[in-house]
Design goal:
The chain is α/β, with parallel strands linked by helices and 208 residues long. The chain has 6 helices and 13 strands. Helix 2 packs across helix 3. It binds 1-O-pyrophosphono-5-O-phosphono-alpha-D-ribofuranose (PRP) and uracil.
């Protein structure tokens, strides 16, 4: 299930993110802000528990989250910039890392790193990657996590293309996708159009 979050603040920040003249420092900050807002939307699905506390006036029932029940999982490299935003909403979440890059010729994902907290399979995973283009990287990352036991996963991206959404929905119909924008499509290099360019290079200032 795809959720495109149509919020004026997200639209405004996305406009700046798409602009080719936006510097890396600002780009990183915008990615973090949008990720925080997407995580806030995802959090509407989370269950709370009722506990009793004492206010200075009287005792009352309040609702709390089990804050240790979450793992934020950036897909390296570009997902790292989103993790900070997710952690602003879920500051006590653990962090896992999945390292994948897209082969420049075949556009197929290549895995190079996998490190998760020991008890992640029983927790709620928030997997983050700014770009969902062909869907190859995200689908492979989610498959990897499922193969190691993950059961409850949300996938968050900033810009997505219809092809990637179709692939992810077909491969992982159980995983909700949250995105800030659904763009027109992909170009001949499988970059999202209009998109925002190469997210990793813009985040880490590694553009040639
Ligand atoms: C980008 C992006 C996604 C992937 C999306 O990563 O961050 O992981 O491409 O493309 P796909 O949907 O067609 O698989 P990239 O391979 O450029 O690696 P990087 O994050 O290390 O720069
Ligand atoms: N990866 C990116 O960083 N940008 C795209 O448009 C597609 C894949």
């Amino acid at each position: 299930m795809i959720h495109e979050i149509k919020n004026p603040i997200i639209r405004h920040k996305l406009a700046q993110l798409r602009n080719k003249n936006t510097a890396s420092k600002d780009f990183r900050e915008l990615v973090e802000d949008i990720s925080m807002l997407l995580t806030y939307e995802v959090a509407k699905n989370f269950e709370t528990q009722t506990i009793e506390i004492e206010t200075p006036i009287k005792s009352c029932n309040v609702e709390v989250l089990n804050e240790n029940n979450f793992v934020v999982v950036p897909i390296l490299r570009a997902g790292l910039a989103m993790a900070g935003g997710a952690l602003k909403i879920l500051p006590n979440a653990s962090i896992g890392h999945v390292g994948l890059y897209r082969d420049e010729k075949t556009f197929e994902p290549v895995e190079y790193f996998f490190k998760m907290p020991p008890d992640f399979a029983e927790k709620i995973l928030i997997v983050v990657d700014p770009m969902l283009a062909t869907g190859g990287s995200a689908s492979a990352a989610l498959q990897l996590l499922k193969s190691k036991g993950a059961k409850k996963i949300y996938f968050l991206c900033i810009v997505s293309a219809p092809r990637g959404i179709e692939k992810l929905t077909a491969d992982h119909p159980d995983i909700p996708i949250y995105t800030a924008a659904i763009d027109e499509g992909l170009n001949e290099n499988c970059y999202i159009v209009p998109g925002l360019g190469d997210a990793g290079d813009r985040i880490f200032a590694t553009l040639q």
